[in-house]
Structures are given as structure tokens and as C-alpha cells.
Amino acid sequence: MSDVAAEAGVSPSTVSLFLRRPTAVSAKTGAAIARVIERLGYVPNLMAGGLAAARSRVVGVIVPSMRNAFFAQTVSSLQTLLAQHGFQVMIASADYDDQSELALVQAYLSWSPSALVLTGFHHAVMTRDLLHSAACPVVEMWEHGDHPLDLSVGFSHIEAGRAAARHLVRRGRRQLAFLGARMQEDRRAMQRARGFAEEVAQAGGTVEIVNHPRPASAETAAGLVGMALAKRPGIEGVATSNDTLGLGVLFECARRGIDVPGDLAIIGFGDLEFSGFTNPSLSTIRPFGDVIGEEIARLLLACFETGERPANRAVDTGFVVVERGSS
To answer: Where are the chain's structural domains?
Structure first.
């Protein structure tokens, strides 16, 4: 850092400030420091910086699955915004397993992170105890409620399930099914299934909740369609726990000669990139994954700046129903 400072004609403390908060130095000075860093190939020693500050500039993020595209937007926007302020994101997957999440939290805490970001409100007792005693902000993402551990950014999955049901019921569908994958582990998907079933019951319809123990795929969806039709041959509409299953249901309907949406209306969840380009295009629930990442970054940067928690600890990012050809 001293070499960079000497080459750039600034003090080491200015270089340190630039590395921690690039916007805190003038554009001209920052550009000069950046040029020297590039020319010298300087890589900041985050371990040394962490020892000096008793806190690393790493934010640990735990997602339930690397297979799930939902979280990519969130992590991408979070990483982009934090990097602008000198923080790096370290991401790991717990694969919907409580013990794996506990081990990851223990590993992250051993590095004295600036913050921890976890997915959802459900954690093992030991994990909750660790998070309660953590000397850094803790954000629970992709879920919304009144009593987060510390901070939360997300939306109500029960309400998302209810919205999917209302969408189908308003189109005259009364015999419905909710098709999910790994819902014995994916508690947010099960919340959507519960909200869906509650709304259908209130509307006087019938509902089947069908779960497959394997991860979501076109093959899994084909099996779910067969299971649902075996239980209730007159099903008029289905909601799926994600758009990957929704795509698989479209494939299986085409194979079976089931007209969509004439015989069967379909609504997915996630609004993945392909959803608007299927045939017919897939109706879905769109959560704002990028907004979730942006709001997490906003909360954390405020905590880092002031050392205090913001007044609003639980941010509801909401969702929208996207109506397309499949319903």
C-alpha cells in the first residue's frame, strides 16, 4: 500500500480509504490510485485489513441451492453494489439442509465477516443462537415477517400462493392442483402451497397438493402431472412451485395432448428468463430478486456507515402476477 501511495503521490491512508470506500476520494485521485494499482498488480491483503479493523470486508451469503436460478439476480445486484464500497461477497449453498447451514455459519463467523445474509426465517436452534450472538448485521432474505432475527428483505410466500390461486379462480377454474418439488425441504415453496390451498378453499374450489421429493426438472414435472391427474382427473388448473416445473408441465401437456390453457391453465413462480418465450408463454409470479439484493445492500451499507440498525428492519419487496398465454 505504501508503494501504491508513493507512486500515486498520495498518503497510504488515502489509498486505504480508496480501497474501502472508492467514492470517498475525489474522482481524479481515485483514478490515479487505480492506475497505479493496475500497473503494480497490487492485491489488497484482506486478512491484514481484517486484523486491523477486527472485521473483514467480506459479506457471507448462504443460499439453499445453487441449482435454483431465483437467487442469481439477488446475489448479482448485492455483489455489484457492495463492491462499489469495497466489500466482497462470499457465497455458499446449504442444499436445504439445516446442519449444512450451521456449518457454513460457523465457518463464516470464524472469518469475522462484515455481515451475514441467509435465506428464509427457518434455522436450526444452534444456528439461531450463533446468529443472535454474532457481532455483525444478519439479514434474512427472500421472506417477509414481523420478527426477523435482525434484518429481513423479502415478501410473503403465503400471499404469493394466494395470488396464484386467485388468478386461476378468476378465470373460472375450480378444480386445482399445486405441484411442487422438494417441498419437504423447501419451506418457502410449502408456504406458497399452503396459501394456494387456503385461497382455493375460501373460493369453494377443490385442491390437490402434490410434491415430488426430487429437485425441479422437466422429468419431475412429468411425474407430478401424472400423479395429479391420477388423484383428480378433472383438474382444470395448476400452480407450480417454480417456472422450471411450469415448463415441464407445458412439455407434458403437449405430450399428452392436453390443451393449454383450454383444458388446463398453468401458472408458475419466479418469472425465469425463458418464461415469456415458451409456447404458450408461461404465466407466473414475479418476485423482485434484483430489488431484494439492492435493499439488502442499502440496509448493510447504512449499518456499516452508522453502526446502528435502521428503523425499518423488515423490508417487503412484494411480487406481481404476470399473466401470459398459459392461463
So the answer is: 2-44, 53-155+289-318, 157-286
